[in-house]
Amino acid sequence: MREDACMSEPAGRDRLVTVTAEGDVAQPPQQVFSIVGDPLTYSSWCGGVLDVEAAPAAEHEPPAWFIRVGARVGLIKMSTRLRMELVVDEPPTDLAFQRRELNQPGYSRASLRVDVRATATGSTVVTTIELGASKLPPGAEALLRREVRKSSKRIESLLSQPLR
């Protein structure tokens, strides 16, 4: 892992936490994108994602998924379900999701972006997560930062497993 950042800044009435981690994977971008391009794999590589299910298709809306995220901080175990829409889908290099809840005004901001770049030895994966943090418990930012740092190693591990 070459770079890691965690910044907090105001987002309207909600504080915004941004976590970015970069890591190398010894596979070409097309292989990496076979994992990151499928939201149903997220619980296997994206720390904090507990499960994912496709959201019902809405007319004139981009594809969306319900992503349940959660963590345990000390004795406190929390999770929440987010509706995330696909906003960028440019295989094999760029993918982004943004939270958009239908019929629920005033929700906290959330986004996930994955950039995959070719290198001489495979790929560099840059994962960025932004969360509205007004309801995060103490220590959650550090936990999120630690989990995001592990994402490229988890992707590499998934790619090294034999096909089933």
Protein described:
With 164 residues, the protein is of the alpha+beta class. The chain has one domain: Alpha-D-Glucose-1,6-Bisphosphate, Chain A, domain 4 (2-Layer Sandwich). It is built from four helices and eight strands, in the order ββααββββββαα. An eight-stranded antiparallel beta sheet has the order 1-2-8-7-6-5-4-3. Helix 1 packs across helix 4. The longest helix has 10 residues. The chain starts with a strand and ends with a helix. The N terminus is likely disordered.
Q: Work out the number of β strands.
A: 8
| Form type | globular
Termini Cα gap:
29 Å
Count up the helices: 4
Strand order of the largest sheet: 1-2-8-7-6-5-4-3
Largest sheet: 8 strands, antiparallel
Q: Output mean pLDDT.
A: 85
CATH architecture: 2-Layer Sandwich
Q: Approximately what portion of the residues adopt beta-strand conformation?
A: over 45%
H-E string? EEHHEEEEEEHH
Q: How many individual domains?
A: 1
